[in-house]
Request: fold
Amino acid sequence: MKKQIALSLALLAGLVMGATSANAAEIKATGNWQVDAGFVNKNYFSGDTGSNKTVSIDQRVRTTFQFIANENLRGVFETQVGIQSWGNGDFAVGNRGQANDGTDDISLRKAYIDFNWPGTKYRFLVGKQSLSLPAAFGGGSAILDDHMSAAAAIVPVTDNIALVGGYARLTDDDGPNVNPNDYNNGTSADAAFLYSNLKFSGFEFNPFFMYAYAGANSGASGLGGFAVPGLTSAQSSAKAYWAGTAFTMTALDPFKVVADINYGKADYSTGNAERSGWLFDLAVDYTGLSMMTPSVFFAYSSGENSNDSKSDRMPVVGAQNWAIGSFWMQGGDTLTDNYTDPSGNLGFWAAGLSLKDIKLIDKLTHTFNVIYFQGTNDKDSGVVTAGNYGTLLTDKDSLVEVDLNSQYQIYEELSLGLELGYIFADFDKGVWAGAGSNSELNENAYKATFMLKYSF
Reply:
């Protein structure tokens, strides 16, 4: 199968290089190729006596092809090689791209059809694509912001109002290659969503609603499909819904105000199990300076109480980009920060200051963050386990994060970046020792990573 994928990519590259006027579609290639070299010390994440210090060089090659028939019809195909470390897999000496050697790492990120219905502005996207619920702060939705198989429609109503809705098959392992003796019953998880874009002079609202159903085996281990860890529970089906809104105000120029309110609830078929919670964030930017954009922000998410049968954290489907800061929540641009996991971090409040887009030297920009995190999870709740040490904060834990991220534009398409981060960690040793973790590793964390990025 991997040999077939590699052959398909080679043929596709030939089409891009040799496209002529006889082709039915115009072919456009874009991409993001990145190499990182960095040192990261996250000792406080470790639950044993080992070290969590890493020095590595990582690489990722992400390429997108658009097959454009006309302004109303196109197909999109995106692949990714990596993320892998130099010296491993495809990036190791002696590997010549042999198929079935266990090291090939070519993945399909997107493959969808994008078209307008004839004679209208109604737009449809069908296939594996990127989907996100509305979000004004944090880089993306904390509920749904991921790649998935879906059918979505964008329907303009007026010049100021548009509706977006659709259906997504989140996971399903009930396919032709599944062993009948495996969990091939109730392995699918599905979602339906609807939101609106309401844009007026100086204001924008994006209210949304989403419903999801996850089968009893959609969270089972050993299946080919991906589970939904922030929603599913092994051997228990789930019904869930989310509602909220994103808000942006620019009417008070040079001040810009953004905010989000998210609420979600999931009911499970086993016993009285339930998971529900909410998230609120607010940020105010001052845009009147040419050399930087100062921003102050606050966020609060509900945390667990001591009742083990009911979770008080918001259920999450999949959110690859939502984060505050660029270190503890893995919200940076480095490849090791590529995927965030709000379902593991929820249960905190945070307040911080950012100085964004600092421009003092031509082609060189900086962003500076200082953030205080405090947990809202009860120290006696059932989620305080050794495996969550360093990721989840109880009401006895706090962190102070300081980031300085810089980028120099070598060419218009090529940039060199440096991300520096430091975390002053204050985990309650008594709480985490009682949960079975080695809380003596309550050390501060730091990172320094260089990034070379080619975007075309």
User: Anything to note?
Assistant: The longest strand covers residues 53-70. The longest helix spans residues 2-18. The chain has three helices and 20 strands. The CA atoms of residues 314 and 368 lie 29 Å apart.
